[in-house]
Write a structure and sequence with these properties.
single chain, Elongation Factor Tu (Ef-tu), domain 3, five-stranded antiparallel beta sheet, 6 helices, Helix Hairpins, elongated, alpha+beta, 29% helix, 19 strands
Length: 421
Amino acid sequence: MKKIIIVAAVVVLLIAIYFGRGVFSSSDAGNNSPTKTSTAVAKRGNLVLTVSSTGIVEPILTVDLKSKASGEIIELPIEEGDVVSRGKLIAKLDATTTKYAYDQALADLEVARKSLSLAIKEADRAGELFRQGLISELDHENALLARERANSDLVRANASLEDAKERLSDTVIKSPIDGIVLQKYVEKGQIIASGISAVSGGTIIATVADLSRAYVTTAVDEIDIGSIEPDQKATIIAESYPDREFMGEVQRIHPQARIEQNVTTFDVTIEVDNSEGLLMSGMNASVEITAGFVENALLIPREALTDMRAIARMIGEGAGSGPPGDMRRRPEGGEGGRQGGSEEDNSSKSNPVKMAIVVNNGIEEPRPIELGLSNFEQVEVLSGLSEGDTVLTTVTSKALKDREAFLERIRSWNRLPGMGR
């Protein structure tokens, strides 16, 4: 028992001597002083925040061409990859039956016109005879009715002719846009179904796309989606053209997340200028979105950031959250003996103030700083530092390593036979 008490007293004495030296002492650079493996100087510069991802090039405007008419294809002067202009012939169907219907409708219209002309003359003659009292009122009204029927027949004949004319024009399929033929689905001699009367929706003849403006849909991780906004600039590099950059803009951010293999992403659509026609549908591309830019900002490396918890651990204290000069551990019940501490204390523990260790004439001083934009390498400092300040970019100390080794030796003593906790 006496032996255990002596060992415990020695341990307490060694710990007291260890912490009495202080991590942030600026005197000797012995084995227990901080290991200044790297320092950096706060300086002005431009900070660019980018979000990188990958996607596939797709045309903005894509049209599936179908025919309103049914029949056999007798002309198909296109192939996949052909550049077509608006109004260019895509396909032509056999129009024999449709032409017969058009000619019949044209003849019916001519008959209707003659009939109306005759009915108008009969109605005028009947009106004159009725005024002279030579025919009855019933005969006069029948003449007027015949005129109206002839006029109705003319209207119907005109509608039938327009319908037949439209059906005849439907046998000729033309491109509605300027673009390129992405895919051809039929061949000459094939019989196709109408796109308006068939239950299946009709036969697709070809797909034409306008590739002067293309878009890339890319999946952005949920960690970065908060920094993405519409109209932000983006740089697209296609694998087919690794040495060329295509410029684009963020058009929309899809609100619904996608979860694949426990990774949550959001689709972002980027419109790309493809006026040269180099990008083709289906190409793989790398996307780099400029999510933020700050000019002439005060910058330090991200490695220089720390907080009170890390500093407290370095000097052997708990994860305190007070100012740099107050490293004492707070009572468990908080100020005044209240359990759990105040709301401000809890907030600072969950979101500790960021700090940097400033080196001035060999003295290391923890200093709270306010941060702005940051990327993987640098961070913008809004307040707390001045241009030219030297900061530690490595806060690991030799004393901290010795302390961990010392505690490990104490744990090993507890595992020795006859040594209690």
